[in-house]
Task: inverse folding
């Protein structure tokens, strides 16, 4: 817990309690979002067995959810800048929980599609408000560890759902998976509304920017001037900023690698068909990928925080070297995976561990860079624009592989990693750019 608590030498004692509430609200709240989202995927076999629906019919439910989620993520990013991020976060979770309960009650395919599409819209209220709350309550040199620690709730929640859903289905049926996840989500949403505050100003404390300005009296006048200038930020500074476009391109790249290796199931298929690895070893590789993702996300968050503290004049741009390192490792690991003729079980597990670590780590960094370089008041919008660039990948991945083959796609991703590594290098220590 000390990893996400207040750094006492920097913040007064009064902030500590509210930050602890924020951490637990964000961690368990976002975990409930993931549990609700995973309820359908873990129950597909049971639904198919009971209802007799074909795979393409149930796949249509998944596609409708993905399309709605990609759209709503941008919408709720903008709303979190205009409305209370706590209210947006909690209400989205409550609505998602209610929709899960209703989904468990319905027997009609049309109702299933409609309810899960609306659930996709509600799921978009998950991470953008969290990004806004972290920006309001967490100092820049702490953001990496907060962001990465909260984001691993996604991995833990997905694993918990996979472990418990089988038992629930066995004893009570697949509908109770939706009932249980919905009730828990609704209860957590009430907790979030009752204990989480939007910003320090809401409880009579100075904002972090004001606190830093007060500590540096020599720059107090400059701090006040910048605050007034940022009260009316322009949207064009977000949508037409070169640095944000670079962040979006990087987000697209690492998310494409994640889909190509894990989400679409190509990684295991590639190992079995092309590398002649057994199904058990391929499953171990998938597990190594997720384990590497959890450890890599935490490690990259802590390292990037260290770089921000080490080079304070550069600001959030000090996190860019961590991105350069991860993309270089991704290119190297993909090269070994593609061109190695014989791979032992240990080698496969090691390669996928490195790939997972260097995929999930940058995903956190890209989000932080978008938020920390955004104008004051448009943090949620900037994060949503960057994250939206990756959401179209799952919708088009099947047709891409059908045209090019998995081997070709992996080669192109390797070259893209090297190209992105070279493109980000000039911006490594440029602390003057801002979205």
Result:
């Amino acid at each position: 817990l000390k990893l996400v608590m207040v750094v006492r030498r920097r913040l007064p004692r009064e902030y500590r309690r509210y930050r602890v509430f924020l951490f637990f609200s964000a961690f368990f709240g976002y975990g409930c979002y993931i549990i609700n989202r995973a309820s359908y995927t873990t129950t597909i076999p049971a639904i198919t067995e009971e209802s007799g629906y074909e795979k393409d019919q149930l796949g249509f439910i998944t596609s409708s959810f993905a399309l709605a989620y990609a759209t709503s993520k941008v919408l709720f990013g903008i709303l979190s800048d205009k409305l209370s991020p706590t209210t947006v976060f909690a209400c989205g979770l409550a609505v998602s929980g209610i929709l899960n309960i209703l989904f468990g009650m319905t027997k009609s395919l049309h109702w299933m599609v409609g309810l899960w599409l609306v659930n996709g819209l509600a799921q978009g209220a998950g991470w953008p408000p969290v990004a806004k709350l972290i920006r309001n309550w967490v100092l820049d040199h702490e953001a990496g560890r907060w962001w990465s620690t909260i984001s691993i709730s996604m991995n833990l929640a997905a694993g918990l759902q996979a472990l418990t859903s089988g038992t629930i289905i066995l004893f009570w049926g697949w509908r109770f998976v939706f009932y249980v996840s919905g009730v828990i989500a609704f209860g957590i949403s009430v907790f979030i509304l009752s204990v989480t505050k939007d910003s320090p100003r809401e409880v009579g404390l100075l904002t972090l920017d004001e606190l830093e300005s007060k500590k540096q009296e020599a720059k107090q006048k400059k701090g006040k001037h910048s605050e007034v200038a940022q009260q009316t930020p322009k949207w064009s500074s977000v949508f037409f900023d070169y640095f944000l476009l670079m962040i979006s391109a990087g987000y697209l790249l690492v998310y494409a690698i994640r889909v190509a290796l894990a989400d679409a199931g190509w990684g295991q298929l590639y190992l079995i068909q092309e590398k002649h690895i057994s199904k058990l070893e391929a499953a171990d590789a998938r597990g190594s990928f997720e384990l590497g993702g959890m450890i890599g996300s935490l490690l990259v968050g802590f390292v990037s925080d260290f770089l921000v503290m080490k080079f304070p004049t550069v600001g959030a741009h000090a996190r860019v070297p961590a991105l350069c390192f991860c993309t270089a490792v991704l290119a190297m690991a993909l090269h070994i995976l593609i061109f190695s003729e014989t791979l032992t079980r240990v080698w496969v597990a090691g390669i996928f561990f490195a790939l997972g670590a260097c995929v999930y780590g940058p995903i956190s960094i890209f989000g932080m860079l978008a938020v920390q370089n955004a104008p004051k008041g448009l943090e949620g919008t900037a994060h949503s624009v960057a994250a939206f660039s990756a959401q179209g990948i799952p919708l088009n991945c099947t047709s891409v592989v059908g045209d090019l083959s998995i081997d070709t796609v992996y080669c192109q991703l390797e070259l893209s990693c090297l190209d992105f590594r070279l493109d980000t290098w000039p911006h490594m220590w440029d602390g003057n750019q801002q979205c």
Remarks:
- Residues 1-9, 222-230, 398-402, 431-435 have pLDDT under 50 and may be disordered.
- The CA atoms of residues 213 and 360 lie 34 Å apart.
